[in-house]
Give the backbone structure.
Amino acid sequence: MSRIRALLSNGNSTQKQFLTLFRNHARLTKDGAAVLSATLGGKMEFPSGLARIEALEHEGDAIVRETHGLLDRTFIPPF
């Protein structure tokens, strides 16, 4: 985690944008897993769990689109 903090504090604007997108996507994945577990474990009603998972999926799709757009606008030098 300290590497991420170092990149966020020392990295350029584009690096910070990517890391923020990746962090947000990881949070959505974790939230989705928690909702799925609660739904399958009977702690959440199936229709509301399904609706929440669908909403998280749409949020994740938006992050993926934003990441692809940022990649398209970013020069990555060839190795």
Observations:
- DSSP finds three helices and no strands in the chain.
